[in-house]
Design a protein that fits this description.
The chain has one domain. It contains four helices and eight strands, in the order βββββααβαβαβ. The longest helix is centred in the middle third of the chain and has 16 residues. It has a six-stranded mixed sheet with strand order 1-4-5-6-7-8, with helices on one face. The protein has a two-stranded antiparallel ribbon with strand order 2-3. It is an alpha/beta fold.
Length: 191
């Protein structure tokens, strides 16, 4: 049987320098050079040519720390080294033609949180984000989510479109991960 998808490119962050941003001032902090654990893969549908970016989720104890600090507490990708490395790589892939001008992004758990960040920061490129058991935005900060989105990504004019997000939870009920924050989109199983 022939696979319907093939790998176009794959990126695992190693020691390339990256910067984070202070959540209050927006000023860069870094460079940091230790691996941040990012893994992202560009797949292509063999029949249609469609390309999709898939982002790995939580995979080790360092990721759990990232989840607790950046996702649960701050509720934003902006201060996260993994996200900063991802956004640079995505820009390189778009410029180099590895990713087309319009593409879908997908991720599970932390990978879905990062996919949400890309979809919000690059709405002109990400036409849809497919999220699986992904924490929502806002964390424990108690700030209104849409105000926080606008502040973090400097969005004006209502770029947040919930129809561009599919947020799938593995099972109904309370979830420690996907029940956290305000979801980026509707669960398609709920109509």
């Amino acid at each position: 049987m022939v696979s319907t998808w093939r790998v176009i490119d794959q990126y695992d962050h190693s020691t390339e320098p990256y910067w984070t941003y202070d959540p209050n001032t927006g000023q860069p902090d870094g460079p940091f050079s230790e691996s941040n654990g990012l893994s992202a893969t560009v797949f292509q549908n063999v029949a249609t040519g469609e390309r999709v970016l898939a982002i790995r989720g939580t995979s080790d104890i360092h990721d759990v720390i990232t989840d607790v600090v950046d996702v649960f507490t701050l509720g934003s990708t902006r201060n996260q080294g993994r996200y900063q490395s991802l956004r640079v790589k995505v820009q390189q892939w778009i410029t180099g033609g590895v990713l087309p001008q319009q593409f879908a992004v997908t991720g599970h758990s932390l990978g879905g949180f990062l996919a949400t960040g890309l979809a919000l920061e690059f709405p002109q490129h990400v036409d849809h984000a497919y999220l699986y058991n992904t924490p929502g935005l806002g964390g424990l900060t108690g700030r209104p989510v849409l105000d926080e989105i606008a502040r973090v990504y400097h969005i004006t004019g209502g770029s947040f479109d919930p129809a561009r997000f599919s947020n799938v939870r593995a099972k109904p009920g309370t979830s420690l991960i996907s029940g956290f924050g305000t979801p980026g989109g509707a669960d398609p199983r709920r109509g």
